[in-house]
Amino acid sequence: MIKREEVYRIGLFNKPHGIHGELQFTFTDDVFDRAEECDYVVCLLDGILVPFFIEEYRFRSDSTALMKLEGVDTAERARMFTNVEVYFPVKYADAQDAGELSWDFFVGFGMEDIHHGLLGTIAQVDTATANILFVVEQSDGEELLVPAHEEFIVGIDKDQRILTVELPEGLLTLDEADEEME
Length: 182
Hints:
By secondary structure, the chain is mostly beta strands. Helices cover 12% and strands 44% of the residues. The protein has a six-stranded antiparallel β-barrel with strand order 1-2-5-4-3-6. A six-stranded mixed beta sheet has the order 10-9-8-7-12-11, with no helix packed on it. A hairpin with a 4-residue loop joins strand 11 and strand 12.
């Protein structure tokens, strides 16, 4: 059984394309094209992570591709994958250059600041605005929003799943300052 911490989200199957089972795939990470050792993706179907071998794919833009999965040969079968989240195995992404990892790769990592220690666990990546943010769940249940900028990252420990950052002075106390002003 595939566990959630063994994969990370790389995109979404949008809708079928044509009558032979091709799927329109919007991706945030093209690791499926770069990782030579892995020929499958993992889909979240009814709450279960299920692997599917990639038969073929072709890019349509820098963020979309048409993908054909093994065993999905009709438009009817392909419709079952509409709006299904697509994941990739962390162990194969680990082999790739860290500079090419998507921000979603770090979901589930602990975030540690070199001055403040462990901040919490990265629960999700917020891409709703132009500034991408890590949503960090703290031990007290509060959420901390941290800008996802390469210049803040000082270390990545893939084995321990820790992202070490050096955040600008005052960034962690912005919420406290806002509360004092109210």
